[in-house]
Write a structure and sequence with these properties.
Elements (H helix, E strand, L loop, with lengths): L1 E2 L25 E5 L7 E7 L2 E12 L11 E8 L1 H4 L5 H19 L11 E11 L4 H15 L10 E7 L2 E4 L3 H6 L2 E8 L4 E9 L3 H32 L4
Parallel strand pairs: 5-6
Antiparallel strand pairs: 1-10, 2-3, 3-4, 4-6, 7-8, 7-9, 9-10
Helix pairs in contact: 2-3, 3-5
C-alpha cells in the first residue's frame, strides 16, 4: 500500500460546471444501510443519477480450486443494468467492464479487511450498478466498504473512493458522465483515510508533477468527506436499530 502526503490541497484552476457545483464539490450524496433483508450487510448509495446497491453475504467455505489458505478471501462481483451500461455498450463490452470493475473492487477493499478473522472462508460482495452518470466505480467502492462495515466485518478502516478528472485544465471532483467524456486525464483513488494508505490508484492521461499532486490531494480530500458520510450513515443505522 502507498502512503500519500498530507499537505494542504492547492487547486490551480477553476471553471463553471453545468450543475452549478464548485470544482471541489460532490453531488448530493445519499447512503443507506440495511436495505437488503437477506444480506449480512448492505448499502445503497446515490450521487444524483449514479445509483449503486451492494449486498455482503457469508462467510462461506472456500472452494478447493483456490487452494489452501489460512486467511479468508473477498469475492467481489459487479453487474451493470442496461441503464448503467448505456446504449453504446454491447454484451461483450459490458461483461468486460463488469470483470474489470470486480477486480478493481477486490483490489480496493481487500487490504482493509482482517482476512484472518474468517480463515479458509470467503466473504461475497455483490454490487449492482443501477444507474450511472459518472463516478460509479468510486461510488461502488464506497458503498461496498460501508456494506462490509454494516455486516460487522472487522476492518482496519473503511475505504471511500472518489474520481477526479481534468477538463480544460480544471480539476473536477466527482465528475458526471458528460464531464468524464470531456476529460483528458483522470484519477481514481481509494484509500484508508485514518492512515492515508492507498488501496487503489488509477491515473490516465499526461500530468505534470504539480497537476498530479493537486489531483491526488483533491481526491484525498474527497475521500475524507465521504468517510464522514459513511461514518454518519453507520452511526445513524446503529442508533435506530431495534434492541436485541
Amino acid at each position: 500500500m502507498l502512503i500519500l502526503f498530507k499537505n494542504k490541497r492547492v487547486i490551480p484552476y477553476s471553471m463553471s460546471r453545468a450543475d452549478g457545483r464548485g470544482n471541489e464539490e460532490f453531488r448530493a450524496a445519499f447512503l443507506k444501510t440495511k436495505v437488503l433483508n437477506q444480506a449480512k450487510g448492505s448499502c445503497y448509495i446515490e450521487l444524483d443519477q449514479t445509483k449503486v446497491m451492494v449486498g455482503v453475504f457469508g462467510p462461506r467455505q472456500e472452494e478447493r480450486k483456490f487452494g489452501f489458505s489460512e486467511t479468508g478471501r473477498l469475492n467481489c462481483e459487479v453487474r451493470l443494468t442496461s441503464f448503467a451500461a448505456g446504449a453504446g455498450m454491447n454484451k461483450q463490452m459490458q461483461m468486460a467492464a463488469e470483470r474489470n470493475m470486480s477486480a478493481a473492487l477486490e483490489q480496493a477493499l481487500t487490504p482493509s479487511v482482517l482476512l484472518d478473522r474468517f480463515p479458509k472462508a470467503v466473504m461475497d460482495v455483490y454490487v449492482m450498478v443501477l444507474e450511472s452518470d459518472g463516478s460509479h466505480v468510486g461510488a461502488a467502492t464506497t458503498a461496498a466498504s460501508t456494506a462490509l462495515a454494516d455486516a460487522s466485518c472487522e476492518l482496519f478502516d473503511m475505504v471511500p473512493a472518489c474520481h477526479v478528472v481534468r477538463v480544460n485544465g480544471s480539476l473536477l471532483l466527482d465528475p458526471t458522465s458528460s464531464e468524464e467524456a470531456l476529460s483528458d486525464g483522470s484519477v481514481l483513488l481509494a484509500l484508508q483515510p485514518s492512515t492515508n494508505e492507498v488501496t487503489q490508484l488509477n491515473m490516465t492521461g499526461s500530468w505534470s508533477a504539480a497537476e498530479r499532486r493537486a489531483a491526488l490531494e483533491l481526491a484525498m480530500g474527497g475521500c475524507a468527506q465521504l468517510k464522514e458520510v459513511m461514518r454518519s450513515t453507520l452511526l445513524e443505522a446503529a442508533a435506530t436499530a431495534p434492541a436485541s
